[in-house]
Design brief:
About 30% of the residues lie in helices and about 20% in strands. It has about 200 residues and is of the alpha/beta class.
């Protein structure tokens, strides 16, 4: 990056508020992977990127608190989906951008996240979403806080799909290879075990 286009300051939101249905109801972010909870791996990657690290969790707050500057939870106890966690993060974020990541992607690296920030700076009023081939990845994204009101209005109108909503808001694509291992979601016991062992499920 040049000095004329610095990386935009960002708050960071790690999404760990789901039911964990594919994990038999376990709290995904606290499952062990290579000797540490999944959330610890994400924390190690994102902690150097900013001083406003938020975790969206709906249980086990005392354990997640060690990895966050603040915690948020859904305003609905029925686990309404990731857009609820995104709304909660937007309400408390202190920086102009919010970097959003799922808790079950422990192979993310700094280079990818910094490249996303650099691309986001080119269109500061648009969401930035990772896209792999034709597949959008709405939970790997950067949102300008200026969109918070539009996102809240869409929620109140009944929208629950992050992908659909962010595309409606003019999302720009950050292209990645379809098989980029950094984006692997370890969201089943089989994927988690195979990745920890360095094998394919």
């Amino acid at each position: 990056m040049t000095d004329s286009c610095p990386l935009p300051p960002c708050s960071i939101l790690l999404l760990a508020g789901g039911r964990g249905q594919r994990m038999g109801g376990q709290d995904k972010g606290l499952l062990q992977w290579r000797g540490q909870p999944l959330i610890a791996h994400l924390h190690a990657v994102v902690r150097p990127l900013g001083d406003d690290l938020i975790i969206s969790c709906n249980r086990n707050a005392e354990r997640y608190a060690a990895y966050a500057d603040r915690l948020v939870q859904d305003d609905d106890s029925e686990f309404p989906g990731p857009l609820a966690g995104i709304r909660a993060g937007l309400r408390v974020a202190r920086q102009p951008w919010l970097l959003i990541l799922p808790c079950d992607a422990p192979q993310l690296d700094t280079a990818l996240l910094q490249a996303m920030r650099a691309r986001a700076a080119e269109q500061p009023d648009k969401p930035l979403l990772i896209r792999r081939g034709s597949q959008w990845e709405p939970l790997f994204c950067l949102l300008p806080l200026s969109l918070a009101d539009s996102i809240e209005q869409a929620w109140q109108a009944g929208e629950r799909s992050p992908r659909r909503l962010l595309l409606q808001l003019g999302a720009q694509a950050f292209e990645c290879a379809e098989d980029d291992p950094r984006l692997a979601n370890l969201n089943t016991p089989e994927l988690l075990a195979a990745s920890a062992a360095g094998t394919r499920p």
